[in-house]
Amino acid sequence: MEALGVSYIRTQIANVCFVKTGENGKETWVLIDAGIPGSKDQILNAVAERFGESARPEAIILTHGHFDHVGAVIDLAQHWDVPVYAHELELPYLTGKADYPEPDPTVGGGLVAYISPVFPHGGIDLGRRVHALPQNGSVPKMPGWCWIHTPGHTEGHVSLYRDEDGTLIAGDAFITTKQESLLSVLTQAREIHGPPAYFTPDWQSSWESVRKLRALHPRFAITGHGRPMSGQPLSDGLDRLAHEFDRIAIPHHGRYVH
């Protein structure tokens, strides 16, 4: 299942997207997120299959800076010598100035949540390679796309939207599998959920972000975890999540619930 010019691969637990942006017959593309640590070769192999052995993106766009979305970004940015873009509120975590809050293993009720304390939560340092996304909402090197601030999972989390055909790259604003459950991660059972609970410190902002994305009425969505969804299942699932977020997504207890 793919939208026009948008594809993805899964790096064990997190997705990476490739977006074709070429105009006038020139095939150019952008990488969205950079997978788990150690995924550089997997991503390069996927790039070679899609675009050719010597292909390089115009840029790397980060939905946010958690370890499973930036695992190979330093290596890839250096390998390709390309800029990286993220929301300005995410820059402290991408320039070595701040660390994310520690994960909360008491929420979500699954094995992945239970082992989450071993997940890295420190920032990384991209130095001068990383830049703030333009304040006008445009996405560098991605004509026709806009970025939408969808905080909650992180302060500077963004989602990307193409109004022309209703394609949404949601990052972890919402996801399409129960990421706290190892069984769901392994089977990729398709069902809309809130952001990974063990790494979400601001639940009210997360709810507002889901409502914001639901108001777009996307027709196709790729999320940071899980398989893409489209059509009525996507619409119905987002409706339910937006209206019942407090019951479906917000834990009854936990370090960040209040």
TrEMBL record:
* Source species of the chain: Alicyclobacillus dauci
Question: A Pfam family name for this chain?
Answer: Lactamase_B
Q: Supply the Gene3D superfamilies for this chain.
A: Ribonuclease Z/Hydroxyacylglutathione hydrolase-like
Q: Which residues form the signal peptide?
A: none
This chain belongs to the protein called: MBL fold metallo-hydrolase
Metallo-beta-lactamase domain: residues covered: 13-225
From which domain of life does this come?
Answer: Bacteria
